[in-house]
Amino acid sequence: MSFNTFGRLFRFTSFGESHGPAIGCVVDGCPPRIALTVEDIQRELDRRRPGQSRFTTQRQEPDRVKIMSGVFTDETTGRQVTTGAPIMLIIENVDQRPKDYSAIKDKYRPGHAGYTYDVKYGIHDYRGGGRASARETAARVAAGAIARKIVPGLLVRGALVQMGPHKIDRARWDWNEVTKNPFFCPDAKQAEFFADYLDGVRKAGSSCGAVIEIVAEGVPAGLGAPIYAKLDGDLAAALMGINAVKGVEIGDGFATASMSGEDNADEMRMGNDGKPVFLSNHAGGILGGISTGQPIVARFAVKPTSSIRIPRRTVDKFGRDTEIVTTGRHDPCVGIRAVPIGEAMVACVLADHYLMHRGQVGEGTAWPFPPRGSEPRVG
User: Fold this and answer.
1) Fewest beta carbons within 10 Å, which of 93, 156, 284, 344?
2) Model confidence over 147-160: pLDDT tens digits?
3) CA 235 to CA 215: how far, in whole Å?
């Protein structure tokens, strides 16, 4: 199976299956002398970890990560830093229940990748979907934890802004609320509604979709390229590559189709520091495929979980019409845990473009790079 590697200069290759012994990734291209501990990575994995509330799958995976290579304790500072070598990360699977899928092993789940895997490879891992399982995204979150430390001053945050047809009130947006509820929701009042709404969905044996918004602040101007390495193009591809994602927009996205030119254009004025100031951010921080220095804003739509307890019509691998009911442990709204995954993929793209920009224009740009031989950065 090809195409398991993401990125150009900062890149990672993930491995493992949902019900195999372990998952993980190898991160390559990380610069040396960046402070990195297992706690830096574990902190992000804990946010994605399943079984933390009644609103997610009850699979009990501790998701404890091990760093197998690519770090060294600096004798001068006593800090553990990257060496520039590949960083191998491994996460053991400890709560596999492949028997949950034995009754449906020959049936194709509607909305799931089992049929297309069989068409392409002639085989598919029915135990949770194998490589198609969202379990693989733990490796992306681990890689994203490293990527966050590469761009100086970068802050990447995400929030769930819609569940099913129900949206948040943006007038009540509070980043502090994201960590106070199980939905990563910035609207405290709507988070209470989401709890009741999702309880109903879960008890009915159904599922629902969601919209996630990612905001990256501290992104320097100049990242990206005007043609085949557009920053927004790479962000869209990264987010679209997350399991169950069916749509991506940058900035105002599809809403711009109903705007006038004067409404959509982000006007500019000179600031007191001699740099231009944008009066709005409809473009989501990217113009012509290149970052403007404004916050980068991206949203992606996550479809309803395909594994549900309501009978659905399907066919089996022998060409017979049948019905299917999926039992076991599944997220009633897989979009909830997509928040840290979206953050990770945005961080990986920005780290990749940061390194490409530095490789092309060097350190003689308007925005500073850490000087060689400097102390390791602490993320």
Assistant:
1) 93
2) 999 999 999 999 99
3) 12
